[in-house]
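assembly run, all chains below
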Amino acid sequence: MAGVIITALIIGLSGYFGTVSWPALLDAVLRTTYRLALSYGVALLVGVSVALLVGWSRFADALFPVFDILQNIPSFALIPLFIYFLGYGDLMIILFAVSSIVWPILFAVLSAIKSVHNDLNDAATIFGATGFRRIVSYLAPLSYPAILTGSIVGIAIGWESVIGAEIIANASGFGAFIKNASASGIDQASVAGMFAILIIVFVVNRLVWAPLLAESARRYAE
Amino acid sequence: MPNSMATHADSALVLSRVSAHFDDERKRDAAALEDISFSVPAGAFVSVIGPSGAGKSTLMRVILGLMPHASGTIVRNFSRSAMVFQNYALFPWLTALDNAAFGLKMGGMPRQEREKIAREKLKEVGLEHLADHYPAALSGGQRQRVGLARALAISPDLLILDEPFSNLDTITAEALKTDLLKIWRAYGMTVLMVNHLIPDAIELSDQIIVMNAHPGRIEKVLAVDLPRPRDARGAPFFKEVDELTEIIRSVS
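ok done. output:
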């Protein structure tokens, strides 16, 4: 019985998606994923470094509201600026995505550093985690759970930014793919693409973030 | 105050007329200190007791230089200080062994050497078998022992304990107290302990500093002259407890 249903489903779906150009879709999705991965890498590096340096310095309290204002600028309002300086290629899309992914990471880390119990800060100082060593041996490991949660939020925003920029710039990638597909009336291609991205998000969450979160919750539990 | 008359030469710590206050609104819960003067003889076990709001923890932070004081002088006649915290303040991302070795690592000691020392200290506090456990997997008493091992590892000549027993159940606290006395006798370091239990203070201390609140100030400095080891069930012991209880009642 189940076999019949699955077979029927496959036949039905392959009929519905018959017009989709799978190699083109695969290429588009992979290109978008690649851009997102690069953007996330850069945003992680920049966000964590800046947050650690600011959290380590005496200016954390002063800079927090500044970051808050910067973060609140709608990132798509800045896209003409990115296009003006960087054109319509990979570099523009990646840096644009970085500018939106970086904030949740930066804020998560900065908040973690600001909200840590005073005693733990004192313990770090008393046992010698001072100067630059404080960043490496204390603030960075302390921020690990925040880096994880910031990354998860950042990547969710990153999908939007990369795809949005691709649609606007009409560059290659999934954004451009669905734009062209809907323009030529092949909605099935857009639907197939969304499923492809859902699968990527699901797999990455299950295989990467869920185990990392579980491990960090276990270790950092009070 | 006979003990505060001790000369600077044999004192590990001398505070004279130290005041501290906070102009930061958010640190309101940290109590201010007013006109604090006392000295701690080198190698002595000194307890600081008093109600909450008396600034006992603030005083410890000022002594360690973690917090500035507004006026007065502090003479620090010790070369290395370490602290044990009420909330343990262990680093959750490090194992018991790495927590114990943290101070040595920051001091630049090579891994093998510092792990050997950290393991020795964990053994001294009876936790050698849990060296690879993270703090989250340890009980309160075990965590406090890791905190003690972390402090001992850097060979402090002044050990500050901020209410080390108050998060522990009675049995665990008693066991830790016995070990603490043993360690103090073996190492001979100066110990300054914040506490709120009168019998504990009398059982452990050479000298008891009684503080009061709003603002944090010293009411009295008492010497405890009972011979060691102390019998916490004998009549002389209870007499001391009564006296101290009476003093605290009269000032609060």
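Residues 32-220 of chain A form a domain with the MetI-like fold fold (CATH 1.10.3720.10).

The CA atoms of residues 175 and 211 of chain A lie 30 Å apart.

not gonna interpret more than that til we talk
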